[in-house]
Write a structure and sequence with these properties.
Arc Repressor Mutant, subunit A; 20 helices; 5 strands; globular; 8% strand; single chain; Profilin-like; 5-stranded antiparallel β-sheet; alpha+beta
């Protein structure tokens, strides 16, 4: 093996790009360097997938559109990232929450993430092409990395093999016996037919989809992604706001990726179907009576992790605080503050059911001033404590 100082190369790259970098030897981290002080390295959320990548030079993009550049050299792996084209405060808060950061560490984490240089993926890969040439003596271009022509051909071969195997071993019409059920469920969502969907869920048959993965949990997660893609489009056709439908889809997919049991993934899928259908149902029976109330609802959903600030909400909607509060109360018979808190508690219920986050983490994430404030508010709206609520649904 060539006598190359990998740590020197990694440090130089990190200083040049202003992006964290790591070196792994036989999948064990032996070096880390960054110009910013990250209290937690966000790569922990994706490292298992990244370590599986074996190409000399490649990349990985997660569901928040953070990307990592990867070089494999002998028994070593160099990982540069994360970087991104842009990043919102909401995304950083979600990232900190998923990394189990406490409230005291959040400000330092926020500053460190903001200090990372936003850089196009192409620029990162160009840097790594140079390093790959030094290490692996390959003259590669972006076209070689991004297009993957040869890899696509291999994928086609593998897919053909899998299809042939499935056709030989199983009657394919029996595997894909979901079309009629699929259309029926999507019609429930599109029409906001909540009663019919609830009746169907009570006696839901086992649905056998196509084979999307070899491992059962991955199969369920892949099926979830396919299902929510269809369901969100049906809800949009039923009148649900496009941004709301797609943001909700992103949120559910992120929650699904955190789960590791068949029961919890299945429960989340049923909850997701009911959620989309109820939103369309609410629209159709005019529970949301005006464009203003719909705008307020969407605003709160996009700022659910922030402390309640009616003045900022009014300013962002270009209306006076007094008019906003009065108009909302007249149309909903509920104060804006109560509505805001109710939506926060609805989100807290999801986090209690579908994640293992502590009460303190959930409280901080949802912008409550303290855990006791969160607990008291939760009890006010549900008549039970967060711990009682979680225990009943375990």
């Amino acid at each position: 093996m060539k006598n190359i100082d990998l740590k020197y190369i990694a440090t130089t790259i990190a200083n040049l790009a202003n992006i964290p970098i790591r070196i792994y030897e036989n999948n064990e981290q032996i070096f880390y360097y960054a110009t910013m002080n990250l209290t937690v390295d966000p790569i922990i959320l994706n490292i298992s997938e990244i370590l599986k990548i074996e190409d000399h030079i490649s990349y990985y993009i997660n569901h928040d559109f953070f990307y990592y550049g990867i070089i494999n050299y002998d028994k070593f792996k160099i990982i540069l990232g994360p970087s991104f084209n842009n990043i919102s405060d909401e995304t950083i808060k979600n990232l900190a929450f998923n990394c189990n950061l406490d409230n005291d560490s959040y400000n330092d984490f926020y500053k460190a993430i903001k200090a990372i240089m936003p850089m196009p993926l192409n620029s990162i890969m160009q840097i790594l092409c140079t390093i790959n040439y030094i290490l692996n003596e390959e003259k590669l271009t972006l076209e070689d990395i991004i297009i993957y022509d040869s890899e696509q051909k291999e994928y086609e071969k593998e897919i053909n093999k899998i299809e042939l195997k499935n056709n030989l071993n199983t009657n394919i019409t029996n595997i894909h016996n979901t079309i009629d059920l699929e259309n029926m469920i999507l019609n429930y969502v599109r029409n906001g037919d909540l009663d019919s969907l609830k009746q169907w869920l009570q006696k839901a048959p086992a649905i056998r989809g196509g084979i999307l993965a070899n491992e059962q949990i991955r199969q369920l997660k892949n099926t979830f992604v396919v299902t929510i893609t269809l369901v969100s489009r049906s809800a949009i056709n039923g009148g649900l706001d496009i941004d709301e439908a797609l943001s909700l889809s992103d949120s559910y997919i992120q929650k699904c990726e955190l789960l590791n049991s068949i029961e919890r993934i299945t429960n989340l899928q049923y909850h997701m179907l009911l959620d989309y259908t109820k939103r369309v149902y609410d629209l159709k029976i005019n529970k949301i009576n005006s464009k203003l109330v719909l705008s307020i609802t969407n605003y709160i959903k996009h700022h659910i992790t922030e402390p309640i600030n009616i003045t900022k909400l009014a300013k962002d909607l270009f209306i006076s605080r007094t008019y906003l509060a009065t108009k909302f109360k007249n149309e909903t018979n509920m104060t804006l503050s109560n509505y805001y808190l109710k939506m926060k508690i609805d989100e807290a219920k999801n986090l209690l059911i579908y994640t293992n986050k502590s009460l303190n983490q959930i409280s901080s994430y949802l912008g409550f001033s303290s855990q006791s404030h969160f607990t008291n508010t939760f009890k006010k709206y549900t008549n039970e404590s967060p711990n009682e609520f979680r225990k009943e649904r375990e």
